[in-house]
Amino acid sequence: MYDVLIGSFISALSTGIGAIPILFMRRTITHRLRDIMLAYAAGIMTSASMYNLIPEALGHSNLFVLTAGLLLGALVLLVLEMNIPHVDLENPDQGPLVPIEAKAFLIIAAITLHNLPEGLSVGVSYASEDQNLGNLIAFSIGLQNAPEGFIVALFLVNQNIGRLKALGIATLTGAVEIVTSMIGYYLSSFVSGLVPYGLAFAAGAMMFIVYKELIPESHGDGNQRTATLSFLLGLLTMIGLTEWL
């Protein structure tokens, strides 16, 4: 109980930590650095899914359970993505023709809902018999949240929202993970046989985010080679941490 609370808090807080640089920036972030950050986060999440979540789910169940949970995780993210208007963070004028305040609300709502399955991933991982898995998943989600928080805060500042207010809003978008992680933990702890489904669900949700959002966005501005190397570095970072722990 205590471990999952601390892990989810750190993971959620990473969104706000990642947004802190917005207080000191005088110029916007370059496409190149943004792509590097996104690709690195994609590598971290891919490694967490393939090297930790999926083997752990298979170890507690079978291929059928893994397939069902993974596809359900991807399906939930697909439904969310289809029903939440997408606002291009770098080119907000290409989004829906709505006022600035409404655009800001849309991106805040999108990121908040996007964080729901991430919180569940952390909670389910702490319910696993592997005592280190929860910390690893919380860490990987936290690393993914940091650039996400920065990008959200940057978007809000570009919409004439104060820097401190943008930092606070970005932090709050990650706070929902604390609640959903506790839900995932309690469900997995008290419902027999749910843990492998939850682990597979977490893997499916994370891989959907990687393939649908992080990789395309990191390869859209001509920085494919740099982003690919950053992805591999993120992959190796997570594998190294797993071996070290």
Automatic annotation (TrEMBL):
<feature type="transmembrane region" description="Helical">
    <location>
        <begin position="60"/>
        <end position="80"/>
    </location>
</feature>
<protein>
    <submittedName>
        <fullName>ZIP family metal transporter</fullName>
    </submittedName>
</protein>
<keyword id="KW-0862">Zinc</keyword>
<keyword id="KW-1003">Cell membrane</keyword>
<keyword id="KW-1133">Transmembrane helix</keyword>
<feature type="transmembrane region" description="Helical">
    <location>
        <begin position="226"/>
        <end position="244"/>
    </location>
</feature>
<dbReference type="InterPro" id="IPR003689">
    <property type="entry name" value="ZIP"/>
</dbReference>
<feature type="transmembrane region" description="Helical">
    <location>
        <begin position="194"/>
        <end position="214"/>
    </location>
</feature>
<feature type="transmembrane region" description="Helical">
    <location>
        <begin position="36"/>
        <end position="54"/>
    </location>
</feature>
<dbReference type="Pfam" id="PF02535">
    <property type="entry name" value="Zip"/>
</dbReference>
<keyword id="KW-0472">Membrane</keyword>
<comment type="similarity">
    <text>Belongs to the ZIP transporter (TC 2.A.5) family.</text>
</comment>
<keyword id="KW-0812">Transmembrane</keyword>
<feature type="transmembrane region" description="Helical">
    <location>
        <begin position="169"/>
        <end position="188"/>
    </location>
</feature>
<feature type="transmembrane region" description="Helical">
    <location>
        <begin position="6"/>
        <end position="24"/>
    </location>
</feature>
